[in-house]
């Protein structure tokens, strides 16, 4: 498989096929990045598009100093920060009804999102970049401009906090699942008896 | 969990599971995790958190390239067509940091040049008068200077001369050029080719000169003076001679490439030139090729380093990448050495100079006296006697122990045989 960096160089040389290959590779991950952090799916789609437009516009200025993946997520983080600033301004004037990140979220996912939401902002970003974007510690450190050791310790803290917060919910979820199963068994037994 | 009982920290357990632990620590972590139930529990909990997080899936965006991106690509293509290729290259180069640094350097150099020019003009009268005093043919000037060398005060060293069109500073910059990744292979290649086209080809120069002189000692001393004046040095020197023949000096000299002609001209004045030969080997293409290979190897090294630093994977993969990195670094060191050697050969020409003494055989007309001959004969006789005695002693010391041993062994059998022989006639 051709590396991202080689594709980027090809694109800089004028190959639009190379850009399309990069687009196919990173459209989904970038959309996922925005989708998990924004309320509206349309905005996630728009910002994904914005990120790729920024790549096209900046292709001449691109320098292969970092991985293309890190470069793309760097653009995405900047766009997200701008979007959040804009949202905070808009929220002061107009109240926007929040939209669920996914329409078919299960209870487990909702609990997990709540647990993530209760994390410190910096820790949440690190754990999300690691778990969903699959970035390495050094890539996260580069993007967030933090030392790698800080990233590691915050990631550990965030995961431990998530473990603690997910535990009771899981127990409840397991308990409710057990109750449902028992009820079903009883119903089945009653039916057979009748 | 403390380090007295656990050789790794909990964070390291997590980093190991993420494939983010250094190879040596990963080995320790793997061994410890096989044995420690507590750490296994921690690993299971961390795995459980990751599994929970994985349940949050998001829908995929609609397939196909959005119209806005297609339009932007078309505009990009049109913009690229509207500028000439050279202009595009210049634009691309301008946007690289390396090009900006080079431009800033060129600006600074131009400023220094202008200031220098102003200073030169200010002192113009004095400079031109110096030049007019030296307005004699080069060879005569060299000879005159050489003849009065012993009376001259040592002059301050001149600025580093250009070497095949390159200054020493430029070569040093080439040798300590930043890795290819900092400026990109394209920019590096362009820089190298521009340097070569601007400064001419790289040629390894060699010359050989055989000179015969009557004043061997003076010639040898003067050779060193010439070398010092042209900032050269002796790579190898052999001098010798036998009775009844002239002395010979063979020296391999290294002289800055642009000083070769001047040095040769001066060396020729040391005596009568018997033979002279000069040669040059163009290594421009080899140098460019070496630079390109070095750039590629550095890129590979950087990619492998990034891979090692950023990618996650199995321990065996990490070790394989490290082995590959070691191999690439070995190649880079070898190529660096080749490049330095080539640059040195180009910057310093090799002169092989042989200076032979013009020997005049002397006829010995007075024979030695009789008393001397008798004395010499007596001494020779005494020396022969002494040598003979010493030789006998040495023989006895060398073979004596063996002779004694064999005599002791053979004495009794010989005695028995002898007795039997003596008895048999009687019987």
Kindly list the characteristics that best describe this protein:
heterodimer, A: 194 residues, mainly alpha, Rna Polymerase Sigma Factor, Chain: A, Arc Repressor Mutant, subunit A, 76% helix, globular, B: 427 residues, alpha+beta, 3 domains, 5-stranded mixed beta sheet, 16 helices, flat
CATH-level-2 architecture of the largest domain in chain A: Orthogonal Bundle
Overall shape of chain B: it is flat
Q: How far apart, in Å, are the first and last alpha carbons of chain A?
A: 64 Å
Q: List SSEs of chain A in N-to-C order.
A: HHHHHHHH
* Arithmetic mean pLDDT of chain A: 80
Average pLDDT number of chain B: 74
Element string of chain B (H = helix, E = strand): HHHHHHHHHHHEHEEHEHHEH
Q: Count the E strands of chain A.
A: 0
Fraction in helix of chain B: 55-70%
Strand order of the largest sheet of chain B: 2-3-5-1-4
Structural summary, described in words:
The complex is a heterodimer of chains A (194) and B (427). Chain A contains eight helices and no strands. Chain A has two domains: 1-100, Rna Polymerase Sigma Factor, Chain: A, CATH 1.10.1740; 105-194, Winged helix-like DNA-binding domain superfamily/Winged helix DNA-binding domain (Arc Repressor Mutant, subunit A). In chain A, helix 3 (41-57) crosses helix 4 and helix 4 crosses helix 7. Chain A starts with a helix and ends with a helix. The radius of gyration of chain A is 22 Å and the shape is globular. Chain A has 194 residues and is mainly alpha-helical. Mean pLDDT of chain A is 80; it is low at 94-100. In chain B, helix 1 crosses helix 3, helix 11 (185-199) packs antiparallel against helix 14 (284-310) and helix 14 runs antiparallel to helix 15 (315-347). Chain B has three domains: 10-52, no CATH class; 87-135; 136-357, no CATH class. A five-stranded mixed beta sheet of chain B has the order 2-3-5-1-4. By secondary structure, chain B is of the alpha+beta class. The radius of gyration of chain B is 41 Å and the shape is flat. At the A-B interface, helix 2, helix 3, helix 5, helix 6 and helix 7 of A face helix 1, helix 3, helix 4, helix 5 and helix 14 of B.
């Amino acid at each position: 498989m051709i590396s991202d960096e080689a594709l980027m160089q090809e694109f800089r040389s004028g190959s639009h096929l190379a850009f399309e290959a990069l687009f196919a590779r990173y459209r989904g991950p970038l959309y996922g990045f925005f989708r998990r952090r924004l309320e509206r799916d349309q905005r996630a789609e728009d910002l994904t598009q914005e990120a790729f437009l920024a790549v096209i516009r900046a292709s001449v200025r691109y320098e292969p100093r970092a991985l293309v993946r890190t470069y793309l997520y760097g653009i995405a983080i900047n766009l997200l920060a701008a979007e959040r600033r804009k949202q905070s301004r808009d929220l002061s004037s107009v109240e926007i009804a929040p939209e669920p990140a996914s329409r078919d979220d299960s209870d487990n996912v909702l609990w997990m999102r709540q647990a993530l939401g209760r994390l410190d902002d910096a820790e949440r970003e690190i754990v999300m970049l690691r778990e969903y974007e699959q970035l390495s510690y050094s890539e996260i450190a580069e993007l967030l401009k933090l030392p790698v050791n800080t990233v590691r310790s915050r990631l550990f803290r965030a995961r431990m906090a998530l473990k603690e917060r997910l535990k009771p919910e899981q127990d409840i979820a397991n308990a409710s699942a057990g109750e449902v199963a028992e009820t079903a068994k009883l119903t089945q037994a009653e039916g057979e008896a009748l | 969990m403390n380090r007295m009982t656990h050789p790794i920290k909990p964070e390291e357990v997590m980093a190991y599971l993420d494939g983010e632990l250094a190879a040596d620590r990963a080995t320790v972590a793997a061994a410890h995790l096989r044995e420690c139930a507590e750490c296994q529990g921690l690993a299971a909990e961390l795995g459980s958190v990751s599994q929970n997080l994985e349940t949050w899936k998001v829908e995929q965006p609609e397939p196909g390239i959005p119209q806005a991106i297609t339009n932007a690509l078309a505009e990009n293509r049109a913009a690229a067509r509207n500028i000439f290729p050279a202009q595009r290259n210049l634009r691309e180069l301008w946007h690289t940091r390396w090009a900006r640094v080079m431009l800033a350097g060129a600006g600074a150099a131009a400023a220094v040049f202008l200031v220098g020019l102003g200073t030169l003009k200010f002192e113009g009268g004095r400079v031109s008068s110096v030049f007019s005093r030296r307005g004699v043919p080069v060879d005569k000037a060299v000879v005159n200077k050489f003849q009065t060398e012993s009376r001259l005060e040592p002059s301050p060293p001149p600025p580093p001369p250009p070497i095949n069109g390159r200054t020493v500073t430029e070569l040093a910059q080439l040798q300590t050029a930043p890795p290819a990744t900092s400026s990109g292979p394209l920019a590096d290649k362009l820089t190298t080719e521009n340097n070569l086209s601007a400064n001419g080809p790289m040629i390894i120069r060699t010359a050989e000169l055989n000179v015969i002189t009557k004043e061997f000692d003076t010639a040898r001393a003067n050779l060193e003076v010439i070398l010092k004046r042209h900032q050269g040095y002796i790579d190898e020197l052999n001098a010798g001679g036998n009775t009844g023949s002239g002395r010979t000096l063979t020296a391999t000299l290294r002289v800055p490439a642009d000083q070769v002609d001047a040095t040769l001209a001066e060396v020729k004045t040391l005596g009568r030139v018997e033979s002279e030969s000069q040669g040059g080997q163009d290594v421009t293409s080899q140098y460019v090729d070496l630079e390109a290979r070095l750039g590629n190897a550095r890129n590979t090294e950087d990619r492998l380093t990034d891979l090692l630093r950023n990618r996650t994977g199995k321990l065996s993969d990490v070790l394989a990448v490290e082995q590959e990195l070691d191999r690439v670094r070995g190649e880079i060191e070898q190529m660096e050495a080749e490049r330095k050697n080539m640059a040195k050969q180009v910057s310093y020409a090799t002169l092989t100079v042989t200076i032979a003494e013009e020997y005049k055989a002397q006829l010995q007309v007075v024979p030695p006296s009789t008393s001397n001959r008798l004395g010499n004969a007596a001494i020779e006789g005494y020396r022969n006697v002494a040598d003979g005695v010493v030789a006998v002693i040495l023989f006895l010391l060398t073979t004596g122990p063996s002779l004694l041993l064999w005599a002791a062994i053979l004495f009794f059998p010989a005695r028995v045989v002898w007795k039997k022989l003596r008895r048999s006639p009687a019987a």
